[in-house]
Specification:
With 358 residues, the protein is of the alpha/beta class. The longest helix is centred in the first third of the chain and has 22 residues. The protein has one domain: Metal-dependent hydrolases (TIM Barrel), CATH 3.20.20.140. Bound molecules: zinc ion (ZN).
Length: 358
């Protein structure tokens, strides 16, 4: 075997998870999926680090299984309520402050990247690159008056919606089997937000967005289409997954789809299961590669936000997924594209050049 392949991953919830815990990102843990020692062990050189605002403490929706009905063919979860802007903003700012502390504690081992140049430099230096992402746009004011402040701080990727409605867009409720066509498209404010992200050079992430919203962005945006963590609807018909037409639209814009590792969004039966083999994830990767080319598929683990098969375990297990790709006859060039080069290209093509090049 050759040397370890670097991995850039499209989605993790590690910041939101660690923020409320005592342990340090720099100590190896058996809990969760990602910390510095496990990143190094698995070859993880960077990722999109999400901030996700949970429902307020008094809300029953804080329980992820709230309103879950198991149906003969799968499951349904009741539509989640919106969260208030002020609440989301206060929470998001605290997690950003935590991220700044984490970066300082890292003493050069990690860096919040604000430019493509910095991303490339980190790769050469062995510094872990953290791309700041909001999973749902609730922390942004409807009039967008605070978007530039977030950008100046380091926001470089924005999910328009998590699986709930907000002022800009409508996320898909969790359902299986069910198409991602679950409601209306972007609001007027949502369309303004997409244009503003294009102007600033912020990646617009379409994961969790419903199909009408997806097509609105496809029509409006001048940047590559990006879906950070999702699967293929034809292989696993959940609302979170992409139809063939959506997959083709991503390919046409030179965009990328990060394939999620989560069993309920990859298995054909939509069921959870830590015993799910890695070939199931590889099947989604191969499907996208065959349909739109190997330049448009990547990883979107959802580490620390969702179940990951035991065969992979955590970030330290990433080389096992690389081996599974090779076993599926992806050659070295293809593996490198899937593992990190495709994500890097999309950032290069989307972020403004020469900005915040520190
Ligand atoms: Zn998610």
């Amino acid at each position: 075997m050759g040397s370890i392949i670097p991995v850039f991953d499209g989605h993790n919830d590690t910041l939101t998870r660690l923020y409320s815990q005592e342990r340090s990102f720099f100590e190896r843990s058996d809990s969760g999926h990602l910390d510095w020692p496990r990143a190094v062990a698995g070859g993880l050189v960077g990722g999109i680090f999400a901030i996700y605002t949970s429902p307020p403490e008094e809300s029953p929706e804080r329980d992820p299984y709230y309103g879950l009905t198991i149906t003969p063919a799968g499951y349904e979860v009741t539509q989640r309520s919106p969260v208030a802007h002020e609440y989301a903003k206060a929470f998001t700012l605290s997690v950003m402050a935590y991220l700044a502390e984490l970066e300082e504690e890292g003493d050069g081992r990690v860096s919040v990247v604000r430019s493509y140049e910095a991303l490339e430099r980190n790769l050469g230096l062995g510094v872990l690159s953290m791309v700041l992402h909001f999973e749902g746009a609730e922390a942004i004011r409807e009039d967008l008056s605070d978007l530039e402040e977030y950008y100046a701080w380091g926001l470089r990727s924005l999910g328009l919606a998590w699986s709930r409605p907000n002022a800009f867009a409508h996320g898909v409720p969790f359902r299986f089997p069910h198409s991602p066509d679950t409601g209306p498209g972007l609001t007027t404010a949502g369309k303004r937000l997409v244009r503003a992200c294009n102007e600033l050079g912020i990646v617009v992430d379409l994961a969790h967005l419903n199909e009408a919203g997806f097509w609105d962005v496809a029509q409006l945006s001048n940047a590559p289409l990006v879906v950070s963590h999702a699967g293929v609807y034809e292989l696993c018909p959940s609302t979170r997954n992409l139809t063939d037409a959506q997959i083709e639209a991503v390919g046409e814009t030179n965009g990328v789809i990060g394939i999620i590792f989560e069993p309920i969004n990859t298995r054909p039966d939509g069921k959870p299961g830590a015993d799910t083999p890695l070939e199931v994830i590889v099947g989604h990767i191969a499907y996208v590669a065959e349909r739109i080319g190997v330049d448009h598929v990547a990883f979107g683990s959802d580490f620390d936000g969702a179940e990951v098969p035991d065969a992979l375990g955590d970030a330290a297990g990433l080389p096992k997924l690389i081996d599974a790709l090779r076993a599926n006859s992806f050659d070295d060039e293809a593996v490198e594209k899937i593992a990190y080069k495709n994500w890097l290209r999309v950032f290069r093509d989307t972020w403004r050049q020469g900005d915040f090049g520190f």
